[in-house]
Design goal:
The complex is a heterodimer of chains A (404) and B (430). Chain A has a domain of 208 residues: Orthogonal Bundle (MetI-like fold), CATH 1.10.3720. Chain A is 64% helix and 6% strand. Chain A has twelve helices and seven strands. In chain A, the strands form three sheets. In chain A, strands 1-2-7 form a three-stranded antiparallel β-sheet. In chain A, strand 5 and strand 6 form a beta hairpin. Among the domains of chain B are: 39 residues, no CATH class; 211 residues, MetI-like (MetI-like fold). Chain B is built from 17 helices and no strands. In chain B, helix 6 runs antiparallel to helix 7, helix 13 packs across helix 15 and helix 15 runs antiparallel to helix 17. Chain B is extended. Classes of the chains: A mainly alpha (404), B mainly alpha (430). At the A-B interface, helix 2, helix 4, helix 5, helix 11 and helix 12 of A face helix 2, helix 11, helix 12, helix 15 and helix 17 of B.
Chain lengths: 404, 430
């Protein structure tokens, strides 16, 4: 007869805190929590002693004081009389601007380079391999400085555009590349321009609905409607029509030489272009590798199966390979976007006024409030990073293979 | 009915001689047709790339061939070139030592970092290549102490005491590890601290014993600074990253959350902000009056930064191991430390090698960021003292090309090594 006895009821002994696996983890956690607490207390007490010695305190009042410095590249109104808070907001917008531009161009560049690297054309695939290796293996800071050098030291000064013996000329009579920045035409919105913009927005909506209709038609009846040309004409024809009917309400203001510099139009500073191009080319090389890996990850059997069903090559790409490749490509792509945003803080090396340049640069130097400004700076980047990873998690859940 | 021979018009009775395939289907012509002239788009792409290659080479080649290597300043260069395209590479030969060692490292001591660099290659050899005799690993273990003595100078006793401390710790550890891993670690650490404390008196007593001229950290510069930061931070961040990864996988919630918060925080902010912390904020958190070396603060920050990324890579490796490995280790009765050391980590680290190498390459490139907080690494040297000097003001391309080539060589070399290692380590049969 087997007897099952209840486990011996051992009384709790102090040594069990170290030797018994049931309690040991509590001991470890308690010790680590205690050590963490001691470390924080030590650092905190040092901080207060140091602040008291220097006669400082932690306060964010400086954000309300006038900044007293100029920012030449800005998206919103700002003068040197504006507050540090305003300067920070200008910096945030500048960071977002350069990050957006760089993400967009890096994606285009990366996809093109990644696809071309897989091309059957030997020459172009080798060229793309050289591009990827050359740009991945050199620090982005060096690329930023090199492009900044081109923008400031190689391009002609505005006065080279002057007179009959001008050594430089504007491209299409409208864009001027000078060492003070790039001058491009800006749109001037006259009366009735709102209607044109509205028509354009409506056509975007219409394109969206047309494509959905075409898809539904395909799935329900098998009839294939043309998509590309109708969407393109739907997108542009109504707006162009409205533009001329309303008497061309939108015009362009061209930059013209006035005095020693160009006036009118938009000015894009060399520092912005350097940062934008360098980040785009550098990250583009990484994205090209991601795209290549994503396409290679789709097994040849998929392509062959699609071909044996009678799909044509571009259909195979659109309906079979790309949807699967995107699942592999998009997560690293998003982390590259994150890298661009973080690397945009290198703006400080070329004097582009992003948030690191305003809040972490001049504001810090002027007010001397290192702890407060750097804390804010870190919180800003942390906020962006965490929200992007939250988006990524949602996306990953949505596209992950539904397995049983 | 047999067919009459005469009824058949023609019967071939011997094999025709083999004909060579059409010219377009063999050899170089076939290759060109398939790889360069495949269709209209392919041909267009070839033409475009040929033009691009021509464009780049036609402007770069004369610049390099006409380059001057021994003039004294940029004006002399321009006079000799007289409007021709040509590089003024004399800046490299003129400022060679500054580019490599920085401006303030004592001139007569350049042999020390150079020797340290050569020894680094020897010390790395047995770590990187398993064909190298294993006895050399002893030298690799000694290398950090030798390198510290060579680069920073001072008495060799300082390094020796540090080394003896580690030796004592290891002896104590190996005596006790059979009984309990945790006890062995703690007692070993205590033994090391005691040794260091006692040895401190010895090295203080004989400051001139086998002493080299002391070089302060702020005198380090040039590419040497990038190398120091890269090598030190990668080697320090690897063990820290392993600990963080294990902590993040831990079943103890408090330890897990400490690691998660640390990793996510570090990964969420740019390295620049951490360098700002090292530069201006960290001093507030240290005891009043303590004077912490800037290079040391930067090393701490970059190490933490790299460790967070390495931890995520290793976590991926840990997660990729089949569950059965963990269970098998448990079922043969290994405790946590043993199963990690003997079963899990060797496999997980092998999977993570490509990722770790990527982090290492990225980290090495990121060491250039220290120029932003006005340290004179290679980029800082070029931007600051060299381009600002009246002799070389305006020699951009030669200098930046040099910097790019230097970094490219190291980073490309590392990534090629990692691909080679991956092929060596594959044990599955495909």
């Amino acid at each position: 007869m087997a007897t099952i006895s209840a486990p011996p009821k051992a009384s709790f002994a102090l040594s069990m805190l170290l030797n018994d696996t049931r309690y040991r983890s509590y001991t470890f956690q308690f010790i680590s929590l205690f050590l963490l607490f001691v470390a924080f207390a030590y650092l905190g007490s040092n901080l207060f002693r140091n602040l008291a010695d220097a006669g400082l305190n932690i306060s964010y009042d400086f954000l309300g004081e006038p900044a007293g410095y100029d920012i030449n590249q800005r998206l919103i109104e700002y003068t040197s009389q504006s507050t540090h808070m305003r300067a920070t907001v200008v910096g945030v917008l500048n960071t977002l601007l350069v990050a957006f531009l760089a993400c967009l161009s890096a994606t285009i560049l990366g996809v093109v380079a990644g696809v071309l690297r897989l091309s059957r054309n030997w020459l172009i695939s080798k060229l793309m391999a050289i591009y990827v290796e050359a740009f991945r293996n050199v620090p982005v800071l060096i690329w930023i400085i090199i492009i900044f050098t081109i923008m400031t030291a190689v391009l002609p000064a505005p006065r080279a555009f002057r007179g009959d013996d001008a050594t430089a000329s504007m491209i299409f009579e409208s864009i001027a590349f000078t060492n003070r920045g790039v001058y491009v035409p800006s749109p001037v919105l006259g009366s009735g321009s709102l209607a044109v913009v509205l028509v354009f927005v409506l056509s975007i909506v219409a394109v969206f609905f047309y494509r959905r209709y075409a898809k539904k038609k395909l799935y329900s009846s098998g009839r294939l409607l043309p998509v590309f040309w109708p969407s393109l004409s739907l997108l542009f024809l109504p707006s162009i029509f409205a533009f001329f009917v309303l008497g061309q309400p939108v015009s362009l203001e061209y930059p013209v030489l006035k005095g020693f510099n160009f006036a009118g139009g938009w000015t894009v500073r060399g520092s912005l272009i350097a940062l934008w191009f360098a980040l785009a080319i550098y990250t583009g090389a990484f994205i090209a590798e991601n795209v290549r890996a994503g396409i290679l990850a789709i097994s040849k059997g998929q392509t062959e199966a699609a071909a044996s069903l009678g799909l044509r090559p571009n259909r195979i790409m659109n309906l079979v390979v790309l949807p699967q490749a995107l699942r592999v490509i998009i997560p690293p792509l998003i982390s590259q976007y994150l890298n661009i945003t973080k690397n945009s803080s290198l703006a400080i090396a070329v004097g582009y006024m992003d948030i690191t340049g305003t809040l972490g640069g001049i504001t810090l130097n002027q007010t001397g409030r290192a702890i407060e400004t750097i804390l804010l700076l870190m919180l800003f980047y942390l906020l962006i990073s965490l929200s992007i990873s939250a988006i990524m998690n949602v996306y990953n859940k949505a596209v992950s293979l539904k397995e049983r | 009915m047999p067919v009459e021979r005469s009824q058949i018009a023609f019967v071939r009775e011997e094999q025709l001689p083999e004909r060579s395939p059409p010219v377009l289907e063999t050899g170089a012509l076939k290759w060109i047709r398939e790889n360069l002239l495949n269709g209209v788009t392919g041909t267009l792409l070839t033409l475009v790339s040929l033009y691009a290659i021509y464009f780049v080479l036609s402007s770069v080649l004369p610049w390099i061939i006409n380059g001057l290597w021994n003039t004294n300043n940029i004006r002399e260069c321009k006079d000799i070139l007289a409007g021709m395209s040509g590089g003024c590479f004399s800046v490299l030969s003129d400022r060679w030592n500054q580019l490599l060692f920085g401006i303030t490292y004592p001139n007569d001591q350049y042999w020390r970092p150079s020797l340290a660099f050569v020894l680094l290659l020897i010390a790395l050899a047995p770590v990187l290549f398993s064909q190298v005799p294993r006895q050399l690993l002893v030298f690799s273990a000694l290398y950090p102490f030798i390198a510290f003595w060579l680069i920073w100078g001072g008495t060799i006793l300082f390094s020796a005491v540090a080394l003896i401390g580690f030796g004592v710790a290891y002896m104590v550890y190996s005596r006790l590890v059979a009984r309990s891993f945790a006890v062995a670690i703690v007692v070993g650490l205590l033994a090391a601290v005691v040794t260091w404390w006692l040895g401190g008196f010895v090295s203080d007593a004989f400051p001139d014993f086998a002493a080299l001229e002391v070089v302060a950290s702020r005198d380090m510069g040039g590419f040497m600074l990038n190398m120091i930061l890269g090598v030190v931070c990668v080697s320090l961040s690897l063990p820290l990253g392993i600990l963080l990864a294990l902590g993040r996988q831990s079943s103890m919630p408090i330890i897990k959350w400490i690691c998660v918060v640390f990793i996510e925080f570090i990964r969420g902010v740019p390295l620049i902000t951490l360098l700002f912390v090292a530069n201006v904020v960290l001093a507030y958190f240290l005891p009043p009056g303590s004077n912490f070396d800037l290079i040391l603060r930067v090393i701490i920050m970059i190490t933490m930064f790299a460790a967070a990324y390495i931890a995520e890579v290793i976590r991926g490796g840990l997660a990729a191991l089949p569950r059965g490995q963990y269970e098998a280790a448990d079922s043969v009765g290994l405790d946590y430390a043993q199963s990690m050391r003997l079963i899990i980590l060797p496999q997980a680290l092998k999977i993570s090698i490509p990722g770790i190498v990527n982090v290492a390459v990225g980290l090495f490139k990121d060491t250039t960021l220290v120029s932003v907080i006005s340290m004179f690494d290679l980029v800082g040297m070029i931007r600051g003292p060299i381009l600002a000097s009246t002799d070389w003001n305006g020699v951009y391309w030669e200098l930046w090309l040099f910097a790019a080539v230097l970094f490219f060589t190291v980073c490309y070399g590392i990534s090629q090594y990692s691909q080679w290692l991956e092929r060596q380590l594959t044990t599955d049969h495909r």
